[in-house]
Design goal:
By secondary structure, the protein is α+β, with helices and mostly antiparallel strands. The chain contains four helices and ten strands; from the N terminus they run αβββββαβαββαββ.
Length: 226
C-alpha cells in the first residue's frame, strides 16, 4: 500500500509544484519566487513530518531586492530580520490563523493539495503582490498595527463579528479588511459603530471608512456625514 510519505512526495512533484509554476512562480521542490523587479516575493513549503504523516503549509516572505546582496535568492523559510513582511498562508485566509494540510492514502488523496493550491492562488499570492505594490508606493500605509487592532477586534468578538485583519489608509479613506459578507447585517451594524469611532477621532487623513472582504471587494462605506 502506498504510504502517506510516498503520496506526499508524489503530490508535490507531479501535482503541486507544476500547478504553482503554472501560476507564474519559479522554483522547484520547496521554495518558489514570483518574478518582480523590485522585490523577492517568496513562497516556501513548510513540513512537519511524523512517522506516518507529513502535515504541510506555506510560508510567505517579501524582501526588497535592494536589501539582498547575495547572488542566490532569499530562503522564504529563513527569518533574516529585514523582511518587509512574512506570514504563514493561513494568516491571510479568512480564518486568520495557521492552517495545515495532509496527503493521506485513499481515493481523495489529492484534495488537500487542491485546497492548499487554492489558498496560495486566491489569498497568498494576491497578498504578496499587494504588499509589494504598497511598499513600492506607500500611500498612507498601515493605520493601526495588529497589536493596536486588538481592542477593536475584542469589541467585534463580543458581537460574534469577524475581526479586522488590516486597517490601512488609501485615497483619503480608512480601509478595513475582514472576513465579512455583504448580507451580514450584524457585521454591518457593528462595523458602522466602529467606523463612527474612527471618524470621531478627527484624523484629517481620512473622511470615510471603507469595509472590504478578504478578496478586496467593496462591502460598505461610512462617511462623517453618514
Amino acid at each position: 500500500m502506498t504510504t502517506a510519505h510516498e503520496l506526499h512526495a508524489t503530490g508535490l512533484r507531479e501535482h503541486l509544484a507544476p500547478a504553482l509554476r503554472a501560476l507564474g512562480l519559479i522554483g522547484r521542490h520547496r521554495t518558489f519566487v514570483l518574478p518582480d523587479d523590485t522585490h523577492w516575493m517568496l513562497l516556501g513549503l513548510v513540513e512537519r513530518p511524523t512517522a506516518d504523516r507529513v502535515p504541510f503549509t506555506f510560508g510567505l516572505s517579501l524582501v526588497r531586492r535592494a536589501d539582498w546582496a547575495a547572488d542566490d535568492r532569499p530562503d522564504p523559510l529563513v527569518r533574516y530580520g529585514f523582511e518587509v513582511w512574512r506570514a504563514r498562508v493561513g494568516e491571510v485566509l479568512p480564518v486568520g490563523e495557521d492552517v495545515w494540510w495532509e496527503v493521506l492514502p485513499g481515493p481523495r488523496w489529492q484534495l488537500p493539495l487542491d485546497d492548499a493550491l487554492a489558498a496560495v492562488r486566491d489569498y497568498g499570492l494576491p497578498e504578496l503582490r499587494r504588499r509589494a505594490a504598497a511598499d513600492r508606493s506607500p500611500v498612507g500605509g498601515p493605520y493601526l498595527s495588529p497589536a493596536e487592532l486588538e481592542d477593536v477586534n475584542a469589541a467585534l468578538l463580543t458581537a460574534s463579528v469577524a475581526r479586522v485583519q488590516r486597517a490601512e489608509l488609501a485615497a483619503g479613506a480608512l480601509v478595513l479588511t475582514g472576513a465579512w459578507t455583504r448580507g451580514d447585517g450584524v457585521a454591518r451594524t457593528v462595523l458602522a459603530g466602529a467606523a463612527r469611532g474612527f471618524l470621531s477621532a478627527g484624523d484629517e487623513r481620512f473622511r470615510a471608512v471603507r469595509c472590504l472582504d478578504t478578496l478586496g471587494r467593496e462591502l460598505w462605506t461610512f462617511s462623517r456625514s453618514a
